[in-house]
Design a protein that fits this description.
Blueprint: H1 3-16, E1 32-34, E2 39-42, E3 58-66, E4 72-76
Antiparallel strand pairs: 1-3, 2-3, 3-4
Amino acid sequence: MTKEKSNDLIKAIERNLGGNDLVCPLCKSTEWTVTSKIYKLPIFHEDDISAIMNRDDCFPVIPLICEKCGNTYFINAVAANILSKDGDDNND
């Protein structure tokens, strides 16, 4: 993910907050880092715990990390329009 896309994501979050800065609930910092990578968070299947690592179904997330204390949010990459439902980068 490009630096521009990272900045766009933070701006979109702030727009959803009514133009206010995103404030960390733990340390009250407003400084955040967005990773340049999209991660796969595996979906937990209670009925088949042993197969969890062998499944392809996952939740694509972008970590949003507080620069002061490390508190981390996972942003859904599809809902944030960073990744399309078919898995391609949404490069505008």
